[in-house]
Design brief:
The complex is a heterodimer of chains A (115) and B (114). By secondary structure, chain A is mainly β. Chain A is built from no helices and 11 strands. In chain A, strands 2, 4, 5, 6, 9, 10 and 11 form a 7-stranded mixed β-sheet that branches. Chain B has no helices and 11 strands. Chain B has strands at 4-5, 10-14, 19-25, 32-38, 45-51, 56-58, 62-67, 72-77, 86-93, 102-104, 108-113. The relative contact order of chain B is 0.33. The chains are: A mainly beta (115), B mainly beta (114).
Chain lengths: 115, 114
């Protein structure tokens, strides 16, 4: 029944490793997002995809590579993890922009800790 | 850069009192302003929005006020309850082709004292 689900919820790994976070939404939305929330709770957009096409790509190191196999999935792969990558990563989805305000539906987050 | 911010990082209120959370923004081109609530260990959840051509909107126990003259947004919560304890974010939205472009403020932590 979960609308936006992301796995894993917790991820602890060593510096230099490669890891992935998966996200799936069953809301039928066309657009999906990845946000990063730092230790001060600041939320910042990383990427957005609409129907598998990249729309927003903020200034994010190219070690981060999103992949959208279909419009219900948006996975995040991170290469060569660094200490500064430690954060909570949120996946979200929304309908394609139209007349609504821009309500995003967020997953519960994936807490990444890089040691 | 960041264009949305908050005046108060923390707010403690007595249960039953009203809460007011403030937010300042700098971009006048936004279409909508939105408030999100984030409970501990969960993702942000939409509370209420206001279109840029309005100055007030009411929901259930919540009211959002928009003052475009001073670029100020506030969220008022009536009869605050323990379940209202959370971090509250304001966000501005500029719709782009294919994707919303939300910019979030820093967040205010609301603690409700029983």
């Amino acid at each position: 029944d979960t609308a936006v689900s992301q796995t894993p919820k917790y991820l602890v790994t060593q510096m230099g490793n490669d890891k992935s976070i998966k996200c799936e939404q069953n809301l039928g939305h066309d657009t999906m997002y990845w946000y990063k929330q730092d230790s001060k709770k600041f939320l910042k957009i990383m990427f957005s995809y609409n129907n598998k096409e990249l729309i927003i790509n903020e200034t994010v190191p190219n070690r981060f590579s999103p992949k959208s196999p279909d419009k219900a999935h948006l996975n995040l792969h991170i290469n060569s993890l660094e200490l500064g990558d430690s954060a909570v990563y949120f996946c979200a989805s929304s309908p394609t922009p139209g007349s609504s305000s821009g309500e995003l539906f967020f997953g519960e987050g994936s807490r990444l800790t890089v040691l | 850069g960041e264009s949305v911010g908050l005046h108060l990082p923390t707010l403690s209120v007595q249960e039953g009192d009203n809460s007011i959370i403030n937010c300042a923004y700098s971009n006048s081109a936004s279409d909508y302003f939105i408030w999100y609530k984030q409970e501990s260990g969960k993702g942000p959840q939409f509370i209420i929005d206001i279109r840029s051509n309005m100055d007030k909107r009411q929901g259930q126990r919540v009211t959002v006020l928009l003052n475009k003259t001073v670029k100020h947004l506030s969220l008022q919560i009536a009869a605050t309850q323990p379940g209202d304890s959370a971090v509250y974010f304001c966000a501005e939205n500029r719709s782009g082709a294919g994707s919303y472009q939300l910019t979030f403020g820093k967040g205010t932590k609301l603690s409700v004292i029983p």
